[in-house]
Structures are given as C-alpha cells and as structure tokens.
Model the fold of this input.
Amino acid sequence: MLSILETPRLRLRALTEGDVPSLFTIYKDPEAMRYWSHPAMTDIAEAEALLKDIETHVGPQSLFEWGIARREDDLVIGTCTLHRIDKQHRRAEPGYILHRDHWGQGLAGEALSALLNHAFGAMSLHRLEADIDPRNTSSIRSVERLGFRLEGRLRERYFLAGEIQDSLIYGILAPEWISR
Done:
C-alpha cells in the first residue's frame, strides 16, 4: 500500500478507478508526452490498462506510482513515480507528469520534494536517477532546483514518434538531499 504524501497544495495518493478519466486527459496530450519514452494515449482503454499495470507492480513494490491530486478537491492533475527500484543497491528512478493546465506553478517541484523526502526517508534509498530528454528544459530546471546533478548523456537512446532522442542522466544522493 502507498503512503499518502502531503504538501501545502498537493496530496500524492494511490490511484483509483475513479481517476481513469483524469489519467487519460493527462496522458493523451501529445505536448505533455513529447519527452516520454512512449507516445500519447489515444483511447481511454489505455488509461484503464495503465491503472491495472500500476496496481500489478505496486503490490510487489517494484514500482510506486502516486496520483498528484489537488488538496482542495482531490482531482488528479498528474502522477509521480518511483520505478526501476533496486532494493539491493538502494536506488530508483523518479518520474512525473502534470496536466498542461498546471505547468509553471511550481507543482512538479512540490510533488518531487515530497517524493524525495519519502524515498530518502521511509524507503531508505541512497540514490535517485532522473532520465530526461535534453530538450525538456522545464524538467531539467525542476530537478536541478532540487539538487540533482548532471552525470551524463546517453546518445540516441530512444526512438519515438519518428525522432531519435538523447537522454540526460541526473543523479542525487541521500546525503545531498538531507543536507539541503
């Protein structure tokens, strides 16, 4: 079961069937999905399948995915994820997406701060690695503000929507986060 993570404006919580329409609205936007490693959704059945996939992986704790909900009305406006969790090496990869209407308000940083507190606190992880398309300057700024450091570039890592995309790898260690 996922812990509920709260911030001044957000509640990161488990996703439910009632969130499927919100998930579809978020993941069908080609602009929001431009920098993901898979294309935008085209059918609500894909959002239903995503929820089932999340539920399958949360049980054995190989993935943690929270809905990012506004505290004021509990509407899911994005998701925040820890995936590729490696318990032996105490590392994972964060991911996040917000509905376009909520860009530029500092909500991604707020959600990620809660995620990092949980990852380095309750989960006792030591390292987080963010995989970011070099063209996604908003995400780069978000993780750099949180203390992630650029560690490398993987050339032509993804092929999506007719484009070959590089990948920047950013990392942050628990002591770096805790000392902030």
In short: The chain has a mean pLDDT of 94.
